[in-house]
Amino acid sequence: TQLLEQSPQFLSIQEGENLTVYCNSSSVFSSLQWYRQEPGEGPVLLVTVVTGGEVKKLKRLTFQFGDARKDSSLHITAAQPGDTGLYLCAGGGDYKLSFGAGTTVTVRA
Amino acid sequence: GAGVSQSPSNKVTEKGKDVELRCDPISGHTALYWYRQSLGQGLEFLIYFQGNSAPDKSGLPSDRFSAERTGGSVSTLTIQRTQQEDSAVYLCASSVGWGGNTGELFFGEGSRLTVL
After folding, report:
1. Contacts of B95 (CB under 8 A, 6+ apart)
2. What is the pLDDT of residues B38-61, one digit of tens each?
3. Are A34 and B104 in contact, with CB atoms under 8 Å apart?
4. If both were cysteines, with which of A23, A58, B2, B33 could A89 make a disulfide (CB 3.0 to 4.6 Å apart)?
5. Chain B residues lying within 8 Å of A44, measured CB to CB
6. Pick among A1, A65, A95, A99 to test the B interface (most B CBs inside 10 A)
7. B85: left (phi > 0), else alpha (psi -120 to 50), else beta?
8. CA B72, CA B74: separation in Å to the nearest integer?
């Protein structure tokens, strides 16, 4: 089983602040996905990164895949209350995605 | 809607009873997954179905757990003789093809199981 560690586990910030969530593993992944899950709902895909060193931007969210394809980060600029949720990273190598435990982000208005 | 549908959304049962959880995937999606999410934990892979291939059951935690997929569409996850440690949210997901590498998994809202 490929393990993904996410940090921090919890993050509470004020609206307008920036935040970064990390996803680390000792294993190499062919791709890495980030999902966001809101209470009572299933996770929803935000982005997939496949190339080492790749950076993808989705509005105020910036995702980076490490050069060695073992780690990733998610940076949110000027966070808004609507960004509140559980952020999950998931590593792919075959059809079984390995998920991290998630980072619970709370953005206070 | 056209999303993944799961039922029941909530199930409370007594220890030792059997439960069935249902998943109706997105039409045309050949891959179907079951994951379990416990409080404070990530998603734990349970089982994977792909078309007519033999399912990958390697994630099922014990022989009390079983799943089937009829006609390549609807899937049922059955837990026999439930235990308190089975309490969790059971998530179903489907994808167009292999999914796990670069494809997107579409998740249902989950079935929350509470075993008293």
Report:
1. B29, B31, B33, B103, B104, B105, B106
2. 986 789 999 999 888 889 999 999
3. no
4. A23
5. 107
6. A95
7. alpha
8. 7
Nearest alpha carbon to residue A19 among A69, A82, A61, A71: A61
Q: Which backbone phi and psi does A49 adopt, to 5 degrees?
A: -120, 140
DSSP A51: S
Contact across the interface for B43 and A43, Cβ inside 8 Å: yes
Q: B12 with B114: CB under 8 angstroms?
A: yes
User: Rounded to whole angstroms, what are the CA distances from B93 to A45, B64, B75, B78?
Assistant: 12, 21, 11, 16
Q: Which residue of B has its CA nearest to A34?
A: B104
Contact map slice: A 51-80 vs B, CB within 8 A? none
Burial string for B72-96 (b: 16+ CB within 10 Å, else e) reads ebebebebeebeeebbbbbbbbbbe
d(CA A72, CA A74): 7
A101: nearest CA partner in chain B: B42
Is B93 within 8 Å of A42 when comparing Cβ atoms? Answer: yes
Token couple for A105: 């982000």
